[in-house]
Specification:
This protein has 16 helices and 12 strands. By secondary structure, it is α/β, with parallel strands linked by helices. It has 2 domains: 243 residues, 3-Layer(aba) Sandwich (Rossmann fold), CATH 3.40.50; 78 residues, formyl-coa transferase, domain 3, CATH 3.30.1540. It is elongated.
Length: 393
């Protein structure tokens, strides 16, 4: 998995040059996805020592430290963008325009540039200039109203939905789509990636299925929102959990068999009024065995019952080990392998540690056509920074 240098050119995004302006969680994920699939991603960081955003998703990236607030720094980025394929910009509406780095400027100088703007609320609308976080975007999308248990407030899960799925992943998809179109037209374009709209788009099934009766009951009482006893999480005797998703009748039959119940003594599966009591019955039975014991009961069946794995256990689970679903870098850190798998040009993630801020500043600038004299001047003027400047200049 670590032979990246030999495989990089064969990856799907090999040769694509990406500039990612350092930001919070969604933009770094977007850049990491592109890097995992072969793009040459440069993370443009603030100078070392400034209030820099912590990027724990720097896999496969290089770091260039640059002060964009200074005219010379903004001009340096303009130069970089003339030779780049993609720019990922995570700032609120209007910030790049104030720096003289708006899309109308950069696309005029490089008409092939794909200018991806990843924000919470998008580039237009009442909230375009407002601050927000995952929970706010989730709320405005309508999705938050569907999340939570019966008789409780709506519940925002960990910031995976709006920040990462609706933001980082959707933006990466937009970039790949724009790259595909550019192969025909030769022209770049602006991507307005709103996390509100991204997570709303992810919820299309909820919108499209409203007339099917799946969501006709109050929150927490429906088939897929913790209402059903056969789509629920149960505690085991050792304090761990099992996830149950036995929706279809044939799977439900396997669940009942595994629990040791007599189907003739139970009410019908879809009797809503009986669901609360069925939950109590299932819970009492699951509490009688350990997670490992339940795995021995249900593994190899179609009951749709699986263990709820902790981060400590997930990489060592037999299924995940067989698929090499998790990888380890040269620092011993474990993380998920890039997905999905491509048969001919798979992602080959870097196994090196994440870059230090400014670690590759000189290397990147030379690669993009700056002379050593220009780099020395930018460094002396405190426009750029190095992680180890004494080793370079």
């Amino acid at each position: 998995m670590c032979r990246r240098s030999q495989a990089a050119a064969a990856m799907a995004l090999g040769g694509v040059r990406v500039l990612e302006l350092a930001g919070l969680a969604p933009a770094p994920l977007c850049g990491m996805i592109l890097a995992d699939f072969g793009a040459r991603v440069v993370r443009v960081d603030r100078l070392p020592g400034s209030a820099a955003a912590a990027d724990v998703q720097g896999r496969g990236k290089r770091s260039l430290a640059l002060d964009l607030k200074r005219p010379q720094g903004a001009e340096a980025l303009r130069r970089l963008c003339r030779a780049a394929d993609v720019l990922i910009e995570p700032f609120r509406h209007g910030v790049m325009e104030k720096l003289g780095l708006g899309p109308e400027v950069l696309l005029q100088e490089n008409p092939r540039l794909i200018y991806a703007r990843l924000t919470g609320f998008g580039q237009t609308g009442k909230y375009a200039k407002s601050a927000g976080h995952d929970i706010n975007y989730l709320a405005l999308s309508g999705v938050l109203s569907k999340l939570g248990r019966k008789d409780e407030n709506p519940y925002a899960p960990i910031n995976l939905l709006a920040d990462f799925a609706g933001g980082g992943v959707m933006c990466a998809m937009g970039i790949v789509v724009a790259l595909y179109e550019r192969a025909t037209s030769g022209r770049g374009q602006i991507i307005d990636a709103s996390m509100v709209e991204g997570v709303a788009y992810l919820s299309s099934f909820l919108w499209k299925s409203q007339n099917l009766g799946l969501w006709s009951r109050p929150r927490g009482e429906n088939l897929l929102d913790s209402g059903a006893p056969f789509y629920e999480i149960y505690r085991t005797s050792d304090g761990k959990f099992m996830a149950v998703g036995a929706l279809e009748p044939q799977f439900y039959k396997e669940l009942i068999k595994g629990l040791g119940l007599d189907p003739n003594e139970l009410d019908t599966q879809m009797n809503f009024s009986d669901w609360p009591e069925m939950k109590k019955k299932f819970a009492s039975i699951f509490a009688q065995k350990t997670q490992a014991e339940w795995c021995r009961v249900f593994d190899g069946t179609d009951a749709c019952v699986t263990p709820v794995l902790s981060f400590d256990d997930v990489a060592s689970h037999q299924h995940n080990k067989q698929r090499c679903s998790f990888i380890k870098n040269d620092q011993g850190e474990i993380s998920p392998r890039p997905a999905p798998l491509l048969s001919r040009t798979p992602a080959v993630p870097s196994c090196k540690r994440d870059p230090f801020i400014g670690e590759h500043t000189e290397e990147i600038l030379l690669e993009y056509g700056f002379t050593k004299e220009e780099i020395a001047k930018l460094y002396s003027d405190k426009i750029i920074g190095f992680s180890k400047p004494q080793a370079n200049l």
